[in-house]
Amino acid sequence: MSDDKKLTLSGKTLGVNKGVETGQVRQSFSHGRTKAVVVERKKKRVLSKSGAPEAAPVNAEVSAPHKPRAYVPKKPSSDADSLTGTEQEARMKALEGAKKRAEEEAKERAAEEARRAAEQAERLKLEAVAKESFDEDAEARKKAEIDAKKKAEDIARKKATAEAETKAAAESTTRQKAEEAARKKTELETRAVQLKKASEARQQTGGDDDDDARRGKSKRKDVKKGAGPGADTAERAGRGRGRGADDRRKGRLTISAATGDGERQRSLAAYKRAQAKKRGLHMQQQPQERQSREITIPEAITVQELAQRMAEKSVAVIKALMGLGIVATINETLDQDTAQLVVEDFGHTAKRISEADVEIGMFGEEDDTADLAPRAPVVTVMGHVDHGKTSLLDALRKANVVSGEAGGITQHIGAYQVTSETGSLITFLDTPGHAAFTQMRARGARATDIVILVVAADDGVMPQTIEAINHSKAAGVPMIVAINKIDREGANPDRVRQELLQHEVVTESFSGDTQEVEVSAKTGAGLDKLREAIALQAEILELKANPNRAAEGVVVEAKLDKGRGPVATVLIQRGTLKVGDIFVAGPEWGRVRALVTDKGEQVTEATPSQPVEVLGANAAPGAGDDFAVVENEARAREITAYRQDQMKKKRQAALATPKTLESIFSQLKESGDQIFFDVVLKADVQGSAEAITQALEKAGNDDIKCRVIHSAVGGITETDIGLTLASNALLIGFNVRPNKQARDMAEADGVTIKYYSIIYNLIDDVKAAMIGELGPEYKENIIGRADIKDAFQAGKSGKAAGCIVTEGSIRNDLKARILRDDVIIYEGQINNLRRFKDDVKKVDSGQECGLTFENYHDFRSGDVLEVYELEEIERKL
């Protein structure tokens, strides 16, 4: 092999041919738009037998690619045509790579074809399903149309049958209308024929176009002036026939137009309207019967509301009222009697209700005996002040409450629950014994099961003891007499028993039915017997209550706590009170936020006979108010709104001015010169405020009375200072103090605030202030009397009276009065007193004297002279 020869392949130079063919395709779009797109087509490279690569034919089938042939190398013809081993190896690798690529391309094309075939099959399947669904829908629609058509035919047939009778009545009217229409049609046709003949005559006569135009214009004017719309139609018809056009109107072709029937037939809708109108007239001619209803009538109702409840017009109700002689507007308020007359006049039944019916159902019905469970007895300790009620209770519950009470007396009701030695519970209510707390003792008696009447053995029955006995009898509560202080000197229990007999309290010692126990709160003697007596009485009473119901009870005390808000001490009488319950207490309501026992422990529920402090009221209720749990907030608001309205009406009635002259004069006579001592009171609890108010209102006499213009629970505020200034009253704080703003305001305005913690001192000080308001009181003492015998001239000083002293003595330093026929004609001072010619200071009984008076000389014989002195005495209320 020579080195000067070049390496060749079959006489051709080794190179890479271009494997892509390009061309242009023009695409057509809507609206005539086109676009030229360049398209490229790749050619496959195959190797011929000679070893040179050849391009695949352009029209090769994609689905059947050519399989590359195996390369068969030529036998070297000469040394120049022979290849080296390296070249042959490279060529074989290239051929193998080309073969692999061809196989991969074939696989890809086969996968693509399979995917397209699957898509095509899926599309055909969907089309078949859609076609089948469409066919089913079409069949269903067809069936629905047939059913609807049948239904419409049935309805039309029924309507035709129903309307046949009514149509017979309307045939005469329809016939008359048809005759009238036929007559009008005949007239129109005659007029059209005349116009046609005239037109033909003008066409035969001829003439230029201007004349025809003028004649046509005049003809239109004539038609408009004389013939009306029918002639205009005939003219248009004649003009159309003259032009050779057909005489049918352009537009929608109707049956009447096609058949040439010019009469307009009435539509079904018009017929229905006519029938409805007839029915309406018939209904108006025959008024409906009124439907009788039961109308609820409250105590006051407006005319408009009454008309709405009766389903009547307000004008009709006003007319009915005018028939009763009452002129009222639509917003006028009627009373129950008037409203009932109107309701019965309209043929309805009246049902009268009262505003108080809102409280019906607040307290549940009586419990079934099977639902009742035993409960603890509620024991109230009552008696006179300082007879040892609280000390005895302390000994029973082993506590020391007396030290916490101001002055050692109970200022408000205390509620406690203790456990006896046998494990049973007993609820105690400790009531004050002062006379001012009568109402509180009465509340205690109403809320209790057993009353323990404490009487001191050394003091006996006192006024408040008698009141406690009366409260217990009025409430029908059994009583146990505890004769206390038997350890003291002078204690005489038998004396107490005898004094109780005067008030119809017969103890067991005297063969009565009232238990009595001798005890000593100080030494603890007799406490066991007292517990046994309570347990025995409770066993006799068989106290039971239903715990599985809404709670009901009584408010024994209420106060306003600075940190906790309004707090009410409630004694549960039946049911169970739980946290979250909505309750009504008197005129106030709230939701239970917390329940606190007498030991200061928070609990989630309170059972019957258990006293608890309830937090969550919107304001402090009144002591003694009823307490009940209601179903929802709306019910609670409704009840409290009614109660507050009733309280407001009572206050307005009390403050209402008299409307008759008799009442005006009576009020003036009663008031006379009476002075009112005004007081503004703030207390710690509601019970104390009520007790102090009642005690102060009872203080006074015919000359002066105490008037509490404002009484509330809580600390003293700026509002209280302003009210005190405006009314010139005395501001009293009982166990409360003012806040900083109120204190500063009181100092700036000079308002004095009186603070008290003991009710005795408060009432005594108010009485003393009332006495000071009245001023000193004087008593008149008659010193002597004298008869005037004669009046004579006494020089320049005027007339003098000659008298003889009949009683006592006459002194010149005393006040004197002259009586004539027991009527005072002069009251003044003696100017000069003489006996004979001497001036004297005193003339005794039986002696004669002469005297003159300051600036008075109109006395005469027969008058009586009285001399008296004024003695200042201490006022008492």
Automatic annotation (TrEMBL):
Protein's UniProt name: Translation initiation factor IF-2
Source organism superkingdom: Bacteria
The record ties this protein, via Pfam families, to: EF-G_D2 (PF22042), GTP_EFTU (PF00009), IF-2 (PF11987), IF2_assoc (PF08364), IF2_N (PF04760)
Q: What family does the Swiss-Prot or TrEMBL record give for this protein?
A: Belongs to the TRAFAC class translation factor GTPase superfamily. Classic translation factor GTPase family. IF-2 subfamily.
Q: Disordered: where is this region?
A: 1-20, 42-266
Q: PANTHER family this protein is in?
A: TR-TYPE G DOMAIN-CONTAINING PROTEIN, TRANSLATION INITIATION FACTOR IF-2-RELATED
Keyword Zinc-finger annotated: no
Kindly list the places in or outside the cell where this protein is found, as annotated in its UniProt entry. Cytoplasm
Xref: InterPro entries: EF-G-like_DII, IF2_assoc_dom_bac, IF2_II, IF2_N, P-loop_NTPase, Small_GTP-bd, T_Tr_GTP-bd_dom, TF_IF2_bacterial-like
What taxonomic ancestry is recorded? Bacteria, Pseudomonadati, Pseudomonadota, Alphaproteobacteria, Kordiimonadales
Q: What SUPFAM superfamilies does UniProt report for this protein, alphabetically?
A: Initiation factor IF2/eIF5b, domain 3, P-loop containing nucleoside triphosphate hydrolases, Translation proteins
Q: Which residues form the Tr-type G domain?
A: 374-542
* Keywords, comma-separated and alphabetical: Cytoplasm, GTP-binding, Initiation factor, Nucleotide-binding, Protein biosynthesis
Q: Which residues does the record give as GTP binding sites?
A: 383-390, 430-434, 484-487
List all Basic and acidic residues biased stretches: 88-190, 233-249
Q: What is its main location?
A: cytoplasm
Stated role: One of the essential components for the initiation of protein synthesis. Protects formylmethionyl-tRNA from spontaneous hydrolysis and promotes its binding to the 30S ribosomal subunits. Also involved in the hydrolysis of GTP during the formation of the 70S ribosomal complex.
Protein biosynthesis among the record's keywords? yes
Query: Which GO terms of the molecular function aspect are on file?
Result: translation initiation factor activity
